[in-house]
Design goal:
The protein has helices spanning 4-30, 32-40, 50-71, 77-87, 92-99, 105-134. By secondary structure, it is mainly alpha-helical. It has one domain. It is elongated, with a radius of gyration of 17 Å.
Length: 140
Amino acid sequence: MIRPKHRNMIRALLLFLVVLDIVLSTLALCFPETWFRIFHGVEYVDPQGLLRRTGALWVAFTLFQAIAFFKWEKQPYWLAVIAGVRLTELFSDWTYLYFAQNSTAYGRIGLLIAPPGNLLFGWYLIRSYLKAVRNGNAPS
């Protein structure tokens, strides 16, 4: 059985990830000018719509993380699913930062800390999934 403290940490992490990706996807899809101002300090120029494409990916992240928030205790494999979601972003932010012509201090900080954060979140969720399975929390 997963201890209450650990259970609460998983819930808090999943809720944090849902809120984070709601903010990111909303900025990217609905307020791309604000995104460019915060992260790059320049006018919004994205003729191919890559920022909005990324925003749509974050909507999918939000959806999966919200499902996991409600289902992981009975279906712990959702923790492994979300670990995979987080790990897909492992190299994207540093690549983005490397190739961006302009970035603000906030943009640099956010893009520098995101990959280690995603690695830590992925590792923690995989460990939590394995603990749940070992302790008989997996559905039969």
